[in-house]
Amino acid sequence: MIDLTRNEQALEKNIEKAKEKNIIIPTIAQMKNPELIPDGIKEKLKNVGLWDVNPLNLFRISWKNEQKESGGLYGSSNYIVLPSELTGVKAKIICMIGKWFPTGCHKVGASFGCLAPRLITGQFDTTYHKAVWPSTGNYCRGGAFNSKLLGADSIAILPAEMSKERFEWLHSIAGEVIATPGCESNVKEIFDKTWELKTTRKDVLIFNQFEEMGNYLWHYNVTGSAIADAYEEMKQPGDRFAGAVFTSGSAGTMASGDYLKEKYPTAKLGVGEALQCPTLLNNGFGGHRIEGIGDKHVPWIHNVKNTDMVIDIDDEDSQKLIRFLNEPVGREYLVKELGVSPEFVELLSYFGISGIANMLCAIKMAKYYEMTEHDVIATVMTDSASMYGSRIKELQEENGAYTPTMAAVDYAKHIASIKTDNMQELTYIDRKRVHNLKYYTWVEQQGRTAEELNALWYDDEHTWGAVRREAGAIDELIHEFNERTGLLKNL
Predict the structure, then answer these.
(1) 391: which residues sit within 8 A by CB, 6+ positions away?
(2) Given Cys at both, which of 22, 159, 214, 357 links 114, Cβ 3.0 to 4.6 Å?
(3) 425-442: pLDDT as tens digits
């Protein structure tokens, strides 16, 4: 469970800091359903930009933001449905849009789920502690942003080989930025740095997304319900919710799959990873280029027992397709050769590299289960192409100008030819194998116990189930916090 023990002395300091900086904290219920947000907050948001370092943007941590860079309010879930002309499968694939979160990525929600419970209980003291955000990319961006909005100092940790855009923005928002050796799959190096900070500094509190149950809780409640709302809005007579699939960074988004399987019991849940680092598929290791995925370990917060399938994606596919979907020549090919509507082509900038990998995972799931036009699969576009301008430029320099021939080859090789290789439908024993891999990271290296590990497998009621039920208790503490600041009364 998430520890909600109070430190009243530090809590009072956080309340005073909130008064000083006009910080009102949203509830999880309001993130799920923005209609619950007070009208006074909505009125003020009309003058706030989506990326502004303004505490009011805490109320934009939602999948239901209006698609505006400034002054937007709320609507239905942000999603697109991929046309079969693009995917080559009959199944309908829902892709949730991460671009319209503050920072342009849904990780701002996951980091809120980790920090907020500590702040409203006083376990995190905003006048003393620094929030440490270990990440393979977007999570530390969201964490640094939330820290700033909540009046806290932050330290961002991410691999040195992440995109230039991430580092440039982080240096403008985080108190300190630490680059660790390696690429997306070098997670142990990140963990090593957090342990160094933890053992040498008393003023830090680590928010490790790979083990923080607040990450799981936020996605279960907010992302899960947003996907369900999107499906209920788009479904046609005879449709069924057939499955969801998400590449595993911290595995937080996988928690939304737990929510969806409860709501739609026949649905399948798949987890994706890079073929170049097939940890879940066959205990493998290696480096890869799908930014935002953390590998060579199984996250503590991945409820493996509820996962039906592992799907591996070649990182070359996502690299080639980031150009295909964003270069004018590639888009022209989609319209003229494949019959994709020009209106839909304008939406392709919503795909970042991990979003492309998620799309490919969904295509493989649809092919494996021989899904029909009445089957609906859900996934997410974590961020957007705007986060990868430097990567596209690198590919342009490496491979030259994009040509119609390159577009035809890229579509044929990296979408149309996608097969059901390098994936596995998990039996009970297969799931136990993947779950047991947690031992080597979390028990041997990170201080967890074998008893805790076994509880995640054998005792759902007091582990995963207990966390799912904590949203209400956290919201009550948020209401109390806001009541004590008195700021809501003055709106």
Answers:
(1) 163, 291, 319, 322, 353
(2) 214
(3) 999 999 999 999 999 999
